[in-house]
Write a structure and sequence with these properties.
single chain; 272 residues; 6-stranded antiparallel β-sheet
Length: 272
């Protein structure tokens, strides 16, 4: 038996090839440093080296990994930038589409409103035309009725007074006027009676007290109608028959033919 058989072994485990290479590189670098230091130092300063500097050595695999990482980062950044541009373009297109839709809806609403307004205006015009035609028909009927009445009932001086009064319808009202293009109420009555040689007082107050007072239910063509009290009337007109009178009413209407129901007189006088 060997004299070392019972002595435990102090051998260290084997290192991997990469670690051995790394240490060899470091050791080489240290030895080179020591050699340079020894050559530079003076002969009498030769002392043992107590500090060492380890110089890390980068392997080729580490540099390749770093380059790959940088490239990957650039690729991700480019993808994110492209995605942001696409999102912005989509958002802009959506806004443009919404604006176009809103504009189209607004134009459609405006066109509909214009069409409805045009339809209303057309209907209103048709209604006005219908009312105008109806008034024309009624006016013609009234004129025919008046003409028939004059031919059958108004005779002599009364017919002359009535025909004159009707001929003045449509002329202007002017205060103080007595014809022939304008009248006030008493001026028209005075001018009508002058056609048959009767000279009436000039003003309505005096005309309302001339002749004989008659009931409104017993009127005859040519009678003088008055509004207010006898002797102090404020308005006069001529009864033309058929429930109508002719009078110079006011500056707005001029000389008109109206129904007694339109403005009921207070009384009447008969001069003829």
């Amino acid at each position: 038996m060997s004299h070392t058989a019972h002595i435990p072994s102090h051998r260290k485990p084997r290192r991997s090839a990469s670690k051995v290479s790394l240490r060899a590189g470091v050791a080489g670098g240290v030895l080179s440093t020591i050699a340079l230091a020894g050559a530079a130092a003076p002969a009498n300063a030769a002392q043992p080296v107590t500090e060492t500097i380890e110089m890390p050595t980068l392997t080729g695999n580490l540099a390749t990994t770093a380059a790959a990482t940088v490239q990957a980062t650039k690729t991700v950044a480019a993808d994110l930038q492209l995605q942001a541009a696409q999102d912005a373009a989509a958002s802009s297109a959506a806004k443009d589409a919404k604006k176009a839709k809103d504009d189209a809806e607004q134009k459609a609403a405006e066109a509909k409103a214009k069409a409805e307004a045009a339809a209303k205006a057309k209907a209103a015009a048709a209604e006005r035309a219908s009312r105008s035609a109806e008034r024309t028909t009624l006016s013609a009927a009234a004129s025919t009725a008046t003409s028939t009445f004059k031919a059958s009932n108004a005779t002599g001086s009364a017919a002359a007074i009535v025909n004159f009064a009707l001929a003045q319808v449509g002329k202007a009202y002017v205060s103080g006027a007595t014809g022939s293009s304008a009248y006030d109420c008493s001026g028209l009555v005075q001018a009508a009676y002058r056609q048959v040689g009767v000279d009436l007082p000039r003003v309505s107050q005096d005309q309302s007290a001339t002749g004989t007072q008659v009931s409104l239910s017993n009127l005859q063509p040519g009678d003088i109608l008055y509004w207010g009290s006898s002797g102090s009337a404020y308005h006069v007109a001529i009864y033309v028959g058929g429930g109508n009178f002719v009078g110079a009413q006011n500056p707005s209407t001029g000389v008109v033919e109206r129904s007694l129901d339109w403005d009921q007189p207070t009384g009447a006088v008969r001069v003829l």
